[in-house]
Amino acid sequence: MPRWVSRALVAAGFGPLFYLAWGTVSDGLGANPIDVITDETGTWTLRFLVAALAVTPVRRLTGLAGIAPWRRTLGLFAFVYGTVHMITYVWLDQFFDVAAIVRDVAKRPFITAGAVAFVVMVPLAVTSTARMTRRLGGVAWRRLHRLAYAAAVAGVVHYWWLVKADIRRPLTYGVIVAVLLGARAAWFVFDRSRRPAGAVTRP
């Protein structure tokens, strides 16, 4: 895959963040910019997470091995936007008021689901480097990064519980995540069926 394609992907990934930053300084986000930033960063977190999960199925279906590094890039963008999303809530919405945050979590479970998604993404981001991959070993690293699916499911639940009435968009993301999970399960079964009889299964 040409290097300029990867660079274009990185530039495009920062696009929404630059848009929000410019809208903030130019008063272009409307009457309630905090809500806009919170909503947009949350949505882009889920978009990047789903896109990252789609890389492997697309690679297997198309044979485009060169897109494999995109999974890490897209996953890191999901973490970046998730971090901004969380900071916006904790800082600009709740002003670091721990008691208020606890009360909010108790009253609105969708915040709990969002927090779970973010917490799950933290170890994935920390171990995304080649050095951490070597330290963990390929098998352990792959097992850990299966948590990306858990983060995506929690993100969909967070979005679903948030909107309450019009669930079309979270439902769309939910269907995509379900398809990606189904594809992973199908390939797992298929790969196991192709192993020679008596082959040792890797832990």
What does this structure look like?
With 203 residues, the protein is an all-alpha fold. The chain has one domain. It has nine helices and no strands. Helix 1 packs parallel to helix 3, helix 2 crosses helix 8 and helix 3 packs across helix 5. The two termini are 32 Å apart. The C terminus is likely disordered.
Secondary-structure blueprint:
Elements: H1 3-25, H2 33-62, H3 70-93, H4 98-107, H5 109-126, H6 130-136, H7 138-145, H8 147-163, H9 168-193
Overview in brief:
With 203 residues, the protein is an all-alpha fold. 80% of the residues lie in helices and 0% in strands.
Output the number of helix runs: 9
Content of β-strand? under 5%
Mean pLDDT across all amino acids: 88
Low-confidence stretches: 197-203
Question: How far apart, in Å, are the first and last alpha carbons?
Answer: 32 Å
Order of helices and strands: HHHHHHHHH
- State the total count of DSSP E strands: 0
Largest sheet: none
Overall geometry comes to globular
Helix content: over 70%
Radius of gyration computed on alpha carbons: 19 Å
Structural class: mainly alpha
The overall number of domains is: 1
